[in-house]
UniProtKB/TrEMBL annotation:
<keyword id="KW-0460">Magnesium</keyword>
<keyword id="KW-0808">Transferase</keyword>
<dbReference type="InterPro" id="IPR033717">
    <property type="entry name" value="UDPK"/>
</dbReference>
<keyword id="KW-0479">Metal-binding</keyword>
<feature type="transmembrane region" description="Helical">
    <location>
        <begin position="32"/>
        <end position="51"/>
    </location>
</feature>
<feature type="binding site">
    <location>
        <position position="77"/>
    </location>
    <ligand>
        <name>ATP</name>
    </ligand>
</feature>
<keyword id="KW-0443">Lipid metabolism</keyword>
<feature type="binding site">
    <location>
        <position position="70"/>
    </location>
    <ligand>
        <name>substrate</name>
    </ligand>
</feature>
<dbReference type="GO" id="GO:0008654">
    <property type="term" value="P:phospholipid biosynthetic process"/>
</dbReference>
<dbReference type="GO" id="GO:0016301">
    <property type="term" value="F:kinase activity"/>
</dbReference>
<feature type="binding site">
    <location>
        <position position="29"/>
    </location>
    <ligand>
        <name>a divalent metal cation</name>
    </ligand>
</feature>
<dbReference type="Pfam" id="PF01219">
    <property type="entry name" value="DAGK_prokar"/>
</dbReference>
<keyword id="KW-0472">Membrane</keyword>
<feature type="binding site">
    <location>
        <position position="29"/>
    </location>
    <ligand>
        <name>ATP</name>
    </ligand>
</feature>
<feature type="binding site">
    <location>
        <position position="17"/>
    </location>
    <ligand>
        <name>ATP</name>
    </ligand>
</feature>
<dbReference type="InterPro" id="IPR036945">
    <property type="entry name" value="DAGK_sf"/>
</dbReference>
<feature type="transmembrane region" description="Helical">
    <location>
        <begin position="97"/>
        <end position="118"/>
    </location>
</feature>
């Protein structure tokens, strides 16, 4: 790619592309819907239980990491399907690894949620 240097217009355009990517994720990726639903539930629970600033930081990072991983996974799957529309063992392995990364982060986010919310619900 040719690098013509920094301009404000290019930076603003890159943000537009990024927001379009978020829109694509939320509109078209079914697993992202599940993550968004979980995020809304967690944020609602956080508002109701009065999370501390540090707890909010942990929750926001957990939500952000899962959604970002889902976006990367979705982009890998889309590219892999374009490159190899027929069954290919290497493509399957790549897609499975990407999906596994999302699952690892989702499990970690769930553990963070449990560590934060179980004590609040027990009190």
């Amino acid at each position: 790619m040719k690098n013509d240097g920094f301009t404000l217009r290019k930076r603003l355009r890159s943000f537009r592309y990024a927001f379009h990517g978020i829109q694509l994720l939320i509109r078209h990726e079914h697993n992202a819907w599940i993550h968004c639903f979980a995020a809304v539930c967690v944020v609602t629970a956080g508002c109701l239980t009065g999370l501390s600033v540090m707890e909010w930081i942990a929750v926001i990072f957990a939500i952000g990491m899962v959604l970002a991983a889902e976006a990367v996974n979705s982009s890998i799957e889309a590219l892999a399907d374009l490159v190899s529309p027929d069954y290919n063992e290497a493509i399957k392995r790549t897609k499975d690894l990407a999906a596994g990364a999302v699952l690892i982060l989702a499990i970690a986010a769930a553990i963070v949620g449990l560590l934060i919310f179980i004590p609040k619900f027990l009190n």
